[in-house]
Fold:
Amino acid sequence: MITEDLTVFVVDDDASFLAGVSRLLRASGFAVETFPSAERFLAQRPPEAPGCLLTDLKMPGMSGIELQDALARSGNSLPIVFLTGEGDIPTSVEAMRHGAEDFLTKTAPKEDLIAAVERALARDSFERAKRAHTRDLGARFDMLTPRESEVLRRVLIGQLNKQIAAALGIHERSVKRHRTSLMRKLEVQSVAELALLAAEAGIHGAT
Amino acid sequence: MSWTSVVWSASAGVCLALAAVHLLVWAKSRESWANLAFAIAAASAAASAVSELAMMHAHTPEEYSALVHWLHLAVGVLIVALAWFVHLYLRAGRTWLVWLVCALRAALAVVDLLVSPNLDFKQITGLHQIQIWGETVVVPIGEKTPWSVIFQLAPLLLVVLVIDAAIPAWRRGDRRRAGVVGGAIAGATMSGMAMTIMLHRDMLAVPYSVCMVFLIIVVPMAFELSVDMVRARQLSVDLERSQERMSLAARAAQLGLWEWDLGRDEVWANEVSRERIGAQASERVDLERFLLRVHPGDRESIRKGVRSAIDGGEVLRLEYRYVAPDGSERWAAIQGQVECGPNHQPLRVRGVSLDITDRKQAERERAELHNELAHLGRTTTLNALASSLAHEINQPLGAILRNAEAAELLLKQSPPDLEEVAAIVVDIRKDDQRAAAVIDRMRTLLKRRDMRVEAIPLSQLAKDVADLVKAEVQSRGATLELELPAGLPRVRGDIVHLQQVLLNLLLNGLDAMNGQPGARRLQLRARVADPQTVEVAVTDTGPGIPPEVLPRLFDPFFTTKSEGLGMGLSIARASIESLGGRIWAENQADAGATVRFTLRVADQGGAT
Structure:
């Protein structure tokens, strides 16, 4: 269950609860870092560090919801699990609407807590992987020459080589050459794969 | 038939009768000296009638002379007695005039006795017979002295005295008496003087008839007497009626009336009073008899109260328990006043007693209702604090749970990290105590109990309340400042009620500042206002209290909030006022409002 590099960041103004929760998480095999306030967390936390955030709602100074907003604004999409001393429905709804992973009371059973943390960490990994993948895809498409991009676009709308050659004013042989090149660069084996990849990358056929 | 005898005897008889009546009146009351004076006057008039009758039938000049002395004596006593009578009856006139008349007449009497034969005559040579009413009587002949006029000084002075007394009596409103008595006596005396002078100047040939002159006084005096009798009768009827009314009123109001004669140590008590202490109508009642029915625990305080009322002349006001005729225990109240004599010595205590059991019962019920209401108010306040209190409790509880779970896991490891587990256990204990403290604070508020007044360290109370609300203050983004000077004296109050008052004021202040963009500052300050009073103030920086709301702020069920009963401030006012303090609200000059209340300093000083 140990997920390397993934740290659970815990923010709470109550020192003894902070200590208790971090003990539990460590004993359950997680890497934990604690912060006594949201401000401290924002200041000290390494950007882009993988993991998830466990935070109290009501704190003197910046509250949990405000922290959530600050993270969202700075584009830091760390999954958040809220822990609260009192659960009232409006606040929990607000938190979930802002995209929290989960909302628990401080006295919730440890199974719920650990499950939520794991889900959060998993989501973080998943999102990270997804972001990496998207970046990687983007990089791949960037490697295409302008001519190759044009050919790609026409292939995506289902034009035959002959038609592409006529449209671009080049030989059919050149079209075939471009097709092979771009499919090699994009690391796809078939047109179907190509279409899927293009869709993933958000590239549509067009003229 | 001897008309002179009849007439003179009759007048003597009338005078004697009148004397007897007035003597009886005086004997009955011993204080109406006027009546005694008149009795003496009437008796001496009778004596002079007898003397005159004897003189008219005298046989020798020597006999005549001796009788004249008696006559002069009788007339002297008559004048003196009349002087005293006028002074006493009209209750006016200069006392020295009266004494002057007495002295003068006494002197004249002495001189008269010494001179021979008497002051009127140098010598009585013979007795002359004259006819009166077909009868033969004697008149004296002889050489008259020029001194006889001196005798008239006394009656003259009497007339002066009468006028001197009649005028103030008339002015004072006693017109009838002044006119009748003054006029009669003055008139009679002056006629007497005139007659005597004319007799001596030989202008009249009649025997002495002083007593006839006195009869001029008899008629008006008889009239006066009858008026007095009629009035006395009327008064006694009125008195009876008035007593009946009073008795009826007392019975209707169940009012016990009593009058304690301190000299005889005897209490007159009306029917209601007697019933209340279970005494018979004729039974003798004194303080101890009264105390028999009083609850033993209250007897001493009654004795003390009575003592200090008598000694200090204060109004007597006591409440006590007593055993009613039906055996039940009831409450009564006594109010009385001490009456003192001219030397400020206490003579009597007069008062009323009333059964106040109903009132006491109502007071007790009111106090209970207040307690229940205050309790309700506390639970409502606790509701307001519920979420912040829950937060405060869930912190330690959550920590305890997490710690315990961690310990479980650690113990499953091999080898288990016992050092870490030991640290966990220590933390669990600390957190448990933290949670218990929060619950304790809540429990004090929730407990139902009667108001228990004791000496309370105010600073500590304020700090406890501040602790209770600190989570709420924080969650509303406000700050709470305490200003509690050192050496604040302890105050008289009930811990729970005072906590509730402070809590209420603080929460109201927080509510006032809700949603306010600027600073939200709450201040709790205490100060010594004067040696007997401590003043506490809660100030907020909200919008203040609208002037039309200010007079109704402490009314029950008055609220400007959308939720809430509106009982908080009225309960606070009832609590503070029952502790002898005041509570009021005012707007600050800059912004916000302050609610202040005062508490009495507890007797034994003890700094907090």
In short: Chain A is about 55% helix and 10% strand.
